[in-house]
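Field reference: sequence -> structure
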Amino acid sequence: MKHLNAIGLNNDKSKKLAQKLNELLANYSFFYQNTRGYHWNIKGEKFFELHIKFEELYNDLFMKIDEIAERILTLGFTPNHNYSDYKKISSITESKQVTNGVKAVQEILEAYKVILPIQRELLEMSADAQDEGTNALMSDYIRSQEKLIWMYSSFLNR
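Structure field:
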């Protein structure tokens, strides 16, 4: 079965999944670095609350970055690993030094507007490829992130 990869999935579909996962990886990498900046530089009346929340978020993003890269490897392809490649395909851009908590939360919500559609596309692609591993990963991410969006939006009184 030359058209199947090591885990029994169609090579062509796996390649397309890996390419889309690399796009997601690039966006997560910028999102992660931005969130670390929010954590380091936050000031003001909600400092203690947001400092902790931003640390929780960047730790979660770090784990997801690793899971996505490992999924690309599992599919038989190579994850991108440098920011020059990420910059070419990421829709999330570098955040400048953000000290205002409201602005940081707004930027987090904007990042999710980029991340969620990519994950939903991967959900469809992985279902078509019968790739339960990628499908389950995206489903878990979407479920937890929808709750985070609700919470961050509530913080902003939206």
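Note: The mean pLDDT is 96.
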